Amino acid sequence: MAGMLGIGVSGLLAYQRSLQTVSHNVANANTEGYTRQRVELGTNIPEFAGGGYLGTGVSVRSVERVYDDFLVGRVQSYSSGTSHAQSFAEQVSRIDELLADPDVGLSPAMEGFFSELQSVANDPSSIAARQSFMSQAEILVDRYAYNNQRLEDLRSQNNKQVQAAVTEINGLATSIAALNRDISLAPGNSPPNDLLDRRDVLLQQLSEKVSISTVEQENGAMNVFIGKGLSLVRNFESNEVQLSRNEFDIRQFEASIDFGAGSVNEITDQISGGELGALFDFRDQVLNGTQNALGALAVGFADSFNAQHNLGQDLNGALGTDFFSVPGLEVRNSRANTGTATIAATLTDSSQLDGDEYQLSFSGGGYTLTNTSDGSTETFGGLPQTTSHGFSLDISAGALNNGDSFLIRPGRRGAQDLALSITAPDEVAAAAPVRTAIDALNNTGNATITPGVVNDTSNLPLGADIVMQYDGTDMNVISGPAPWNGVSFAYSDGATVTALAGLEFTISGTPAAGDEFRIENNTNGVGDNRNALLMSDLQNQSLMSNGTASYTDYYGGVVADIGVVANQAQLTQSAQEGLLEQAKNSRDALSGVNLDEEAANLLKFQQAYQAASQVIVASNNMFQSLLSALRG
């Protein structure tokens, strides 16, 4: 009877714990991160009773989570990927919308600029047309500045988000380390399930900020690593992720882990996944390149337009000057430099500019120029040096020490610093500075000469007219200033003449011996539109990307590249969200609380509890019967 009573009591206690666990499951059915628990029951050690072993009841071995490391690991991994994809897609979409916006994008402003320039070409003497063109030029400059400022706003926002993400990472790491201590020191043989759930929630939240890997220790603590195995949490201690300023640009954050005792590891390049990885990827792979490319277009456009404008003549008869102020090329010294040198980068060929950045390193008396985008290098023994990237390098001041380095960003300030150099409508050089003529009174042949094109104004305006005379075979300059006086060239009907330095023209037809042709200053050429037409035609020429793209093509390529990245980011986001949903469903199918199942368990354990109580009642009845028999 005593054994029967003990068995009944053991059952009563076991099913009481089971009912308590089921109730706990039901109560936490909607608690974030809660893992369904179940009581693990086991038979007690049997007793030998002569003829055999008799059972002694049941006991609660432990209360376990219904848990699968693999499924939880998948959720953490896909959480990191989804958070990265969502954040990256959101950031890229902002640039995509900016560049493609018909109201604030560059394309409409560029089209308006060349449209108004064509109006000047149609009526070069019109002050109203010139004023309208200058107004559109100001709009274009402002549009470059506006787009650049929007990108700077995104950079500022990116920095704030990086700071916020790092703060959250450090807070989560501290909380995980504290939970490690609580879990490790928890009394009893059963795991502290609710503490483990809380830690899993924190680990998932951490994985949404940055990609992590975990290793569980024998004491129950969870070590957490980021990057290439760098410890963020070890047992009961956490290391802090810190932000420092980039060695070249104080506006740009870099991440590192402080292990104490002066041991700091930079981890920016190692961070992947999660919101922080997305923020760094967006900055380094999209934002920097877009801003550089936009600036490179501004520099290339201003430089090539100036080159043609300088070959013209304004409404006052003066030679054309720079229409735009061409932005300088940015060079930043490393804060780790020990030398005093300052490096200057000078534009040499704007068609070679792109959105890349270059790091110049000095070592052993030599220089290495590395493209930070693709890793390609160019080496040279000294400065000054003209590179193959559209700029030259030279030491403008100071001296170099071994290990000194510099970051060259040819296009970074282009859109920001672009400005107009002229402001008056009459300064627009729409005319050509020279014109041609034939001696109509004395020429007996039928040859004609085109108005001419100017390629170099260094010897203009002309000190005297250039007079060419045909001798039956050759054209000879019989009078005129240096360097043209005395020049002779064979006549070829319809061929472009390039023998007169800086000037091009075509003589067609059959001249007679003694016929003369004249090149003279374009005095009072207010109705001349030749240079305006040449400037207008710049929009159709391939002046960017090493002579393979027009302004529109180049900008369209930047917009298209961003569009491709944005579209791919959206596809990646959708795919990652689908994978995360599947992983959560798989985890929840195993670990989630099913209220129907818990209701069935509640009924089952309630019946078992009642049955165990009846065993106790029966045992008591038998005991009372025995006592009555003994008293009788």
From TrEMBL:
Organism: Candidatus Tenderia electrophaga
Family: Belongs to the flagella basal body rod proteins family.
Protein name: Flagellar hook-associated protein 1
GO molecular function annotation: structural molecule activity
Annotated GO biological process: bacterial-type flagellum assembly
Signal peptide range in chain numbering: none
Keyword Signal attached: no
Stretches assigned to the Flagellar basal body rod protein N-terminal domain: 7-35
Gene Ontology cellular component annotations, sorted alphabetically: bacterial-type flagellum hook; extracellular region
